Amino acid sequence: MAVNGGDEFPSMDVSGIPTPVCPVCGGEWLVIPVKFCKESYTIGMWGTNGHCFECKSQITACTPLDFPNGWGMGPEGETNG
Ligand SMILES: [Zn+2]
């Protein structure tokens, strides 16, 4: 368990639940490893283990497969059991 004292926000470990935003502070900037496509200079792949840029909480970044009820369907608020 990492100790990150002295910050304005307490660092929490909310990893394990794929999310597009930080569940703790709602921040939309997530720090995750990315793999660039050499042909297009765009992001081709990304890792899911990362942390929130704002509050440094550990998070699990989402992928299209994690979209509720499948990609392209509206979210129903269900959670993965
Ligand atoms: Zn956060």
Briefly, what is this?
The chain is mainly beta. It has no helices and 6 strands.
Write the layout of secondary structure elements.
Blueprint: E1 13-19, E2 30-31, E3 34-36, E4 43-46, E5 49-52, E6 58-61
The structure holds zinc ion.
The site of zinc ion (ZN) has 8 residues, from loops.
Explain the overall architecture:
- The chain is an all-beta fold.
- 0% of the residues lie in helices and 30% in strands.
- It has no helices and six strands.
- The strands form two sheets. Strands 1-6-5-2 form a four-stranded mixed β-sheet, with no helix packed on it.
- The two termini are 24 Å apart.
- The structure holds zinc ion.
- The site of zinc ion has 8 residues, from loops.
Keywords:
mainly beta, 81 residues, 6 strands, binds zinc ion, four-stranded mixed beta sheet, single chain, two-stranded antiparallel sheet
Largest sheet: 4 strands, mixed
The bound ligands are: zinc ion
Output mean pLDDT: 84
Shape, per Cα inertia axes:
globular
- Low-confidence parts: none
- Based on CA atoms alone, the radius of gyration comes out at 14 Å
Counting DSSP E segments of at least 2 residues, the number of strands comes to: 6
- Helix/strand-derived category reads mainly beta
The count of domains is: 1
| Strand percentage | 25-35%
* Spatial strand sequence of the major β-sheet: 1-6-5-2
The helix fraction, in percent, is under 10%
Instruction: Work out the helix count.
Output: 0
